[in-house]
Structure formats: C-alpha cells, structure tokens
C-alpha cells in the first residue's frame, strides 16, 4: 500500500513539474550542467511591445535529458526551483557560469536591495554567508561575456552599470577565484559591453561584438585574452565579416566553430554567422540554413547540448513574441554545410564527440543554493597586464 502511495505521489509531482511554465523574459541568464539548462532572472515585459518591465527572480531548468518538442502546444520539461531560490534577488543581465562543482551567479542589475559584489553559488551545500575580498566597485551588465576555466576562476571583462544619468563602462578584467574567494582586477585595452566571451581549449577567450563608446565594435578585428599569461591580443579575422551587433549569443562546437546568432544593431539581426577558430587564421562565414528561421532574436540565451544549439526566450527590437508560443528553438549544427532549425529534441540522437574543453560544459551535481557575500576589504592584488592599442 505504501509503495502504491509513493507511486501516486511521484506521478502527481511529475505532472505538477510538467505543468510549470516560466514567464517569457529577456535579458535572462542560462548555464548548462547535468543534462539541464538552468535559467534565472531577466526582464518580464509589461507588454509585448515594451522595453520596460519588472526584474525576475525565477529559477528553473529545462530538462534536456529527455526528448521534447518545441512546436506550439508541446509541453516542455520545465522544472521549477522556486523553493530553493528565495534568497535570490530580482535581477537581470547577470553573469551565470559553471565553475567546478558550483553554478556561480553574479548580479548584473537589480531593482531590489543588493550589495555590490554579491555572488550566489548553487551547489550541494546549504546557504552560507561567506567572506571574499577585493570586490569590484559596482555590479555590471555581464550576462554573456563571463566564462570559467577548469581551475575555478571566473573571468568577467567589461560590462556597463546604468545608474541614473550616464552609464558607467567597466574597462577591467575582473577575475574571481572561487576557491580562495578573492577578486583580482587588471586593466583592459578598452571598456566594452553587450559582447560575448567564448573560452577556447587553448586558453584564449574570444570577445565578439558589443559596444565601445556607444558604437558597435567592428567584427573584423577581435579582442582575445590569454588566461595562461594574462595578456591581451588583437586578432584580425578573414572571410565574410558579419554586421556589427550587440546582445547576440555565441556557442563553441567541438570542432572549433563559434556559432554567433541574432543580436541587435539598428534593427535585430537574424543572420547566423560562423567563426572558424580551428586554424591560425580565424575565418568568418555565413551559415547555410536550409529551414525556416525563427523570428528575429536578441536578448536571448543559446546553449550547446551535443550538436544541438538551444535558444531560449528573448525578443526582437520591437516586441516579445506572444506567450502562446514556447519561445524555445533548436538548431541542428551537426552538418556545418547545412544548418537546420528543427522542432524535436532527442538526447538519444546526439552524435558522439570527443571530450570538450572542461571549461565550457562542466558536469556538476548542483542541488542547493548558497550565497557568497563579498565584503570590500581591499588587498593589493592588482596586476599589470600588457595592453594593446585602443581599438
């Protein structure tokens, strides 16, 4: 009898989980771990055609360990984690990284009471207030440019802070060692924001797009940061240079392709462009897409799961799509000569690949939330990196 009751409870909870539907947002953050795409924060628009809205504190994941469809009417395997996320403030544009056995969340913007330097970790531990030092002086929009390496260091370059008045641009590389809980900051050639950062297996972070002095950055010349010796290098690219953009997404494939999707210039750009980093000369190309593409997309997230790129939420330059749609899109990247937007995801069909760089898709057993409060105890750990000429 007890066994039957447990089955009924399990089925009820499973049905309740599948019934959960997150609010469609933009400016949210996502990270992949343990066959799950964890999502938090973002802007909940007051209307479909408005850029104004409320900050979200929702925390949930999309279970990519099971098949699902993304057509209208399909039920996606969303799982709500609200019971363990009460400590989170409302937030958007936040850095969200997979570091070691923890997910690290650094607030980008909040309309609540958040101290500069608050860092939240999601792992097997209970909630604790931990002391770290050398916090950056403010939080910055840094949703898409933060990466974590295999040693547990989180790299955040640039970003902007928007108090009342003129925005403040961060022209630093801020590095948080999650083991020692010490921040180290060093100078950068320029202050950029709204760009993406992608860590290659050789230790170079490739920064693509974004803005500099309110102007869009030219995509023909990239900025690279070497985590091995903490130096900056300009990188000229070849091929078909794409239009400049901001608020796009970028994912790295096993064979060295950085797939850049969407973004915004004067209008939202829907072209899918590829940067081949497998050779000494980085080369741009326009992706050949044989299927109908989603609506123009920006302020979204993109996560690579096997050879599938999963795009979640966002909006275009004018409106957010109706809530009758799932607003989740799947790109099959397995054939680099023929990309396809598809309506079904099946983890059993993921092509076998060689191990990826451990810095990008670390597997972790994350279950509970923990808060790290950064206190401003200033210690002289500032390094002087070799700088390149201003772009």
TrEMBL record:
<keyword id="KW-0732">Signal</keyword>
<keyword id="KW-0677">Repeat</keyword>
<keyword id="KW-0880">Kelch repeat</keyword>
<protein>
    <recommendedName>
        <fullName>Galactose oxidase</fullName>
    </recommendedName>
</protein>
<feature type="signal peptide">
    <location>
        <begin position="1"/>
        <end position="19"/>
    </location>
</feature>
<dbReference type="InterPro" id="IPR015915">
    <property type="entry name" value="Kelch-typ_b-propeller"/>
</dbReference>
<dbReference type="Pfam" id="PF24681">
    <property type="entry name" value="Kelch_KLHDC2_KLHL20_DRC7"/>
</dbReference>
């Amino acid at each position: 009898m007890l066994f039957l009751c447990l089955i009924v409870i399990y089925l009820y909870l499973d049905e309740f989980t599948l019934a959960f539907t997150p609010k469609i947002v933009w400016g949210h953050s996502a990270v992949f771990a343990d066959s799950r795409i964890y999502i938090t924060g973002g802007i909940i628009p007051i209307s479909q055609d408005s850029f104004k809205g409320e900050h979200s504190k929702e925390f949930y994941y999309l279970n990519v360990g099971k098949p699902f469809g993304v057509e209208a009417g399909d039920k996606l395997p969303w799982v709500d984690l609200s019971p363990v996320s009460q400590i989170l403030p409302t937030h958007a544009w936040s850095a969200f990284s997979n570091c070691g056995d923890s997910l690290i969340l650094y607030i980008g913007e909040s309309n609540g009471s958040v101290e500069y330097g608050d860092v939240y970790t999601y792992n097997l531990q209970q909630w604790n207030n931990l002391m770290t030092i050398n916090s950056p002086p403010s939080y910055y929009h840094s949703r898409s440019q933060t990466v974590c390496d295999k040693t547990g260091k989180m790299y955040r370059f640039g970003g902007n802070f928007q108090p009342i008045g003129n925005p403040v641009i961060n022209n630093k590389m801020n590095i948080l060692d999650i083991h020692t809980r010490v921040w180290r900051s060093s100078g950068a050639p320029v202050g950029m924001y709204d760009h993406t950062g992608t860590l290659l297996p050789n230790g170079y972070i490739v920064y693509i797009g974004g803005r500099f002095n309110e102007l869009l950055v030219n995509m023909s010349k990239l900025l690279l940061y070497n985590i091995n010796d903490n130096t900056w290098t300009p990188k000229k690219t070849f091929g078909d240079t794409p239009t400049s953009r901001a608020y796009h997404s970028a994912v790295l494939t096993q064979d060295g392709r950085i797939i850049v999707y969407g973004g915004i210039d004067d209008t939202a750009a829907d072209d899918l462009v590829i940067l081949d980093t497998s050779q000494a000369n980085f080369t741009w190309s326009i992706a050949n897409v044989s299927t109908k593409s989603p609506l123009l997309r920006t302020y979204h997230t993109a996560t690579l799961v096997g050879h599938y790129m999963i795009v979640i939420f966002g909006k275009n330059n004018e409106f957010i799509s109706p809530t009758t749609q799932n607003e989740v899109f799947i790109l099959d990247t397995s054939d680099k000569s023929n990309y396809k937007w598809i309506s079904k995801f099946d983890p059993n069909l993921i092509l076998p690949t060689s191990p990826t760089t451990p810095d990008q898709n670390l597997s972790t057993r994350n279950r509970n939330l923990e808060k790290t409060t950064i206190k401003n105890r200033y210690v002289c750990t500032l390094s002087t990196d070799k700088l390149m000429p201003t772009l």
